[in-house]
Amino acid sequence: MKEIPQIALRAEDDLREIPSAETDLFEYKSSKVPLDKLKNKISVAASAFWNAGGGFFIAGVNDNGEIDGGIDKYKGKQDIRDWVDNAIKLTEPTGEYSINIIENNLDDSKIEDNKVVIVICFFESNMIPHMAYDKKYYIRVGAHSGAANHYLVESLRSLRGNAKPNLRGIMEYHPTKPRIEQLAVIALNEGVALDVKLNFDPLPLAFKQYFSNEFPLEIAAIDKNNPFTMEISGFGFREQAFGKDPVMLKLEYKDVLGNIYKSEQEISPQKNLQPMTIGDDIFKELVNAIENLTRKIK
Fold it and tell me: Model pTM?
């Protein structure tokens, strides 16, 4: 999780501490942006920052973080702080935040009379995902706030329980093909693993002989409701398809914030599965099954 800088942006001098360009933690909006548009941009920023661990939204500065006049102190008869508060609350649920209104207090101030610079600090939230005014979910990616796709939204929901993705591979009987054994990669908790890369060391014999160029396999997402399965050996034919010795299952994946996790686990089809004698056509059936799998992944 990224860390919000411990800086107090309460006076004009404090604004000299902000970066000279937008980052994943700082978003700037010019004084020239109309308030009606600024309201929507505040809601989007609230969604994006809360969904990504927090950050600062500053209105009244240009893209370089320099004061460019300031925002009107009032929207009609409404104080700008109350107006900002209402804009933030367009995002649901509403997380923790603070608002600082910086006024002209220097002899050479760049803030015009009756204008202000608005500083909103969005703190880390445990109520994610947060939905903006337009019923969309956003996340901070680099210096931009972008709409989150379905997998990302589901991943954000998983973080409510602070669940780090935790994957495990198991060998099991195929539920509908009685002659086939499969490897299932399952999630052990509520975390969602994204951009999963699956590999073996060494590759099982069947994969090495026919499909070595297909590895590592790439899987978009794995969670408790969406495990990944692949047909890997046949009853009575394990040694020819898999080899005599166990192999290492190697997994690399990300969480919603882009943190990378790696795990290794010994896999052996000889454990917990009983042998069964079958006809000699099982290897051909297994190869066909693997070919179908790789086509689906592509």
Answer: 0.55
